[in-house]
TrEMBL record:
This is tRNA-dihydrouridine(20/20a) synthase. The keyword Transferase does not apply. Residues 8-309 form the DUS-like FMN-binding domain. Its EC number is 1.3.1.91. Pfam families: Dus (PF01207). Belongs to the Dus family. DusA subfamily. Catalyzes the synthesis of 5,6-dihydrouridine (D), a modified base found in the D-loop of most tRNAs, via the reduction of the C5-C6 double bond in target uridines. Specifically modifies U20 and U20a in tRNAs. FMN binds at P10, M11, V12, Q63, K132, H164, N203, G204, G205, G225, R226.
Amino acid sequence: MKDHRLSVAPMVDRTDRHFRFLVRQISRKVRLYSEMTVDQAVLRGNRERLLAFHPEEHPVALQLAGSDPKSLAEAARIGEAFGYDEVNLNLGCPSERAQRGGYGACLLGDPGRVAEILRAMAEAVRVPVSVKLRLGLEGRETYPELAGMVERFAEAGVRVFIVHARSALLGLSTRANREIPPLRHGWVYRLKADFPQLTFALNGGVRTLEEALAHLGRVDGVMLGRAVYEDPFVLAEADRRVFGLDRRPTRLQVARRLRAYLEEEALRGTPPWAVLRHALNLFRGQPKGRLWRRLLAEGRSLTALDRALRALEDEEVKEGGQEEDPDPKGHPQAALGPARGRV
Ligand SMILES: Cc1cc2nc3c(=O)[nH]c(=O)nc-3n(C[C@H](O)[C@H](O)[C@H](O)COP(=O)(O)O)c2cc1C
C-alpha cells in the first residue's frame, strides 16, 4: 500500500492547492489531502478551478463527499484523470449542510449505503480509494460497530482507513465536533491489531512530530490537521525523521520558493493574497514571526512579500542565521524551536 506514514488532513478553506504547495516545500514526502469537494461540484462545476494542482504536490489525494454511488464513482474517475494519487470519501463532516445533503458523518448511520458507494468508487478507478471516518455517531459509538464497518468497507475494496478518533455529535457545530467528543486513540491501535492487513492512519489532536512518531509504533500512519496550519514548520523534520531523507529546509528557503511560486501563479491570474494568506504562520514562534505576519497581511502583494523577506533576511544576518542546516546530524528536535510542544 502507498505510504501513509504522515499526512496533512483535508481542511476546507485551508488545504487548497496553494497551502499544499507550501507544505510540499517543507516536506517532500508527507501525503496531502484536498479540501472536501462535493461530488456535484466536480460533476457540474469548474473542474479546472476545483481540481487542478501543481505537479510538485504529489502524493496528493482528492477528498470527495456525497451520498450517491453513481455520482461519486464519476467524480472519483474525474479526480483520477486529473492525476490524484488517491480518492478519499469523507465520512466525518458533521455540519448541518452535510446532514441536509446526506453526506459526511451522517452516512456512518448507514454502513450498507457506504459500502455500496465505496464499491462503485473502487470499481471506477485504479488509484486507491480510502475513507476518513469518525468512530461513530452521537457518542453512542462502540468498538464492535466500528470494527464491523471497517470489515464491510474493506470488503467493498477499501484498504486505507483514516480514523479521526472521536465520534460525531450531529447537533453540535463542526468546531465543537473537533473538541468535545473525547479522543480515543486506543481504538485506532486496536483496529490495526484486529485488521493487520489493512492500513490505518490515526487522526485527531496530534500536535507535534514527536507525538506522531510515538503513534507510528502502533499504526501505519498519522494525519495532522490544525497543528500544521497553525505552524507549518511542525513538519520541518518530517522528511528526515519519518521518511529517512537527508533534508531539512529553512523557513527562508521555503519563503523564497514561495516567492517564485507567486510569480508563476500571477501569470495564471491568481491573486497574491490567495497564496500569501496561507504563509502567515510560516515564521510562527520565530523572533520576527509577527512582523512577517503583519507585513504580509497589510500589503497582500508580491511587494509585501519582498519587504517581509528583506526584514527577515536582515535578522538572519544579525543573528548569524544560516540558510543550510548547520548540523544535520545534530539534535533535530531542538531545531524545531519554541513552537514545538505548543498546545
Ligand atoms: C478548518 C477545518 C476544516 C476542516 N475540513 C475538513 C474537510 O474538508 N474534510 C475532512 O475530512 N475533515 C475536515 N476537517 C477535520 C480535519 O481533517 C481533522 O480530522 C480534524 O481537524 C482533527 O485533526 P487535528 O486535531 O489534527 O486538527 C477540518 C478541520 C478544520 C480545522
